[in-house]
């Protein structure tokens, strides 16, 4: 137990340092910030919940010492607690013994993890909005104050370049709706990538107790697709109801985009052009972002069109470490 706690304390220390590194403002510091959940995930997968709790405590202390208490609370609620919870869910199983045979472990579905990450991201975004403002007007003012780059008419024409104030104000109005969705999308990707990275490192070291599964076969319940209908309708409302609905729609869309990406991975197996296709898909996602809508539509339709069953016969990819599917 002592070794588990010590490992967790070290992981939390590293995660806290990576988190506060974002204050440097450089591209490298931003990358370090994105990797902050990785030590927490490794601790949770390799040394289990005692290490996760220890990492939660030490990470919060480091962030509070280097930054402040408010930053530490944000770190704990947005990174430490979610990572600890998701690691626990991923390693969760129940044993069944059908027909009096040897007990078999039934693991927590990975599709539930994707859905949970998306829903938690939406909840964090909504909670953050209500923390900084108690009305929609106050929220709009908060966003404007933090992104207002033009304060008076003397700044309108730097170096002879004229800026359309009306268009800029319209952009700020749109940003009040788009910003939470962008933050939700970014948080989901950060969390999923770090959970995957932590699981893979644990598997390669032989410490991942869950058999490595075919990630291309992750599925979401149809209920999430049905839930998008009323959520989409809610986006036509004004004020906080419309904003909350838009956040929920964005979270569900990203969850289905993950499924769409899994579909692309499966249907391209065995193709000679597979590396090029995946390169184009990932490159366009990083540079443009818009293809996520296409992937979201693909993931949304997959339960009905079942492309992976029809065209996914190219064989499985190698599994990490000594684990098998």
Structure description:
With 325 residues, this protein is an all-alpha fold. 71% of the residues lie in helices and 2% in strands. It is built from 12 helices and 2 strands, in the order ααααββαααααααα. A two-stranded antiparallel ribbon has the order 1-2. The chain is globular and about 70 Å long. It starts with a helix and ends in a 14-residue tail after the last helix.
Indicate the low-confidence ranges by residue numbers.
150-156, 314-325
Q: What structural class results from the helix and strand content?
A: mainly alpha
Radius of gyration: 22 Å
Query: How much strand content do the residues show?
Result: under 5%
Helix content: over 70%
Shape: globular
The total count of helices amounts to 12
What summary fits the major beta sheet? 2 strands, antiparallel
Per DSSP E runs of 2 or more residues, the count of β-strands stands at 2
* Mean pLDDT, all residues: 86
Q: What string gives the helices and strands in order?
A: HHHHEEHHHHHHHH
Strand neighbour order, sheet with most strands:
1-2
Brief overview:
By secondary structure, the protein is mostly helical.
Summarize the SSE layout with pairings.
Layout: H1 2-20, H2 27-34, H3 37-66, H4 69-90, E1 93-96, E2 104-107, H5 110-132, H6 136-147, H7 165-204, H8 222-234, H9 239-267, H10 274-287, H11 291-305, H12 307-311
Antiparallel strand pairs: 1-2
Helix pairs in contact: 1-3, 3-4, 3-7, 4-5, 5-7, 5-9, 6-7, 7-9, 8-9, 9-11
């Amino acid at each position: 137990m002592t070794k588990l706690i010590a490992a967790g304390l070290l992981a939390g220390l590293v995660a806290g340092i990576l988190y506060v590194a974002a204050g440097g403002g450089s591209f490298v510091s931003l990358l370090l910030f994105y990797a902050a959940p990785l030590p927490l995930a490794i601790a949770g997968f390799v040394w289990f919940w005692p290490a996760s709790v220890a990492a939660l405590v030490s990470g919060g202390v480091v962030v509070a010492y280097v930054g402040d208490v408010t930053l530490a609370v944000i770190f704990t609620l947005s990174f430490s607690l979610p990572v600890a919870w998701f690691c626990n869910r991923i390693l969760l199983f129940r044993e069944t013994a059908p027909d009096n045979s040897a007990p078999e472990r039934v693991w927590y579905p990975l599709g539930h993890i994707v859905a949970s990450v998306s829903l938690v991201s939406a909840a964090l975004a909504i909670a953050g909005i209500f923390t900084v403002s108690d009305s929609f007007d106050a929220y709009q003012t908060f966003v404007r104050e933090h992104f207002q780059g033009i304060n008076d008419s003397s700044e309108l024409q730097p170096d002879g370049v004229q800026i359309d104030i009306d268009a800029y104000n319209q952009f700020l109005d749109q940003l009040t709706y788009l910003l939470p969705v962008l933050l939700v999308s970014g948080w989901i990707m950060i969390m999923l990538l770090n959970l995957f990275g932590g699981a893979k490192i644990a598997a390669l070291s032989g410490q991942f107790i869950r058999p490595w599964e075919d990630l291309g076969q992750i599925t979401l319940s149809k209920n999430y697709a049905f839930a998008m209908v009323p959520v989409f309708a809610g986006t036509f409302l004004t004020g906080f109801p419309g904003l909350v609905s838009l956040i929920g729609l964005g979270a569900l869309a990203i969850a289905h985009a993950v499924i769409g990406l899994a579909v692309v991975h499966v249907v391209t197996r065995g193709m000679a052009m597979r590396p090029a296709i995946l390169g184009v898909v990932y490159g366009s996602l990083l540079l443009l972002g818009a293809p996520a809508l296409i992937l979201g539509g693909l993931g949304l339709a997959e339960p009905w069109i079942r492309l992976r069953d029809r065209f996914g016969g190219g064989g499985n990819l190698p599994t990490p470490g000594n684990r098998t599917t």
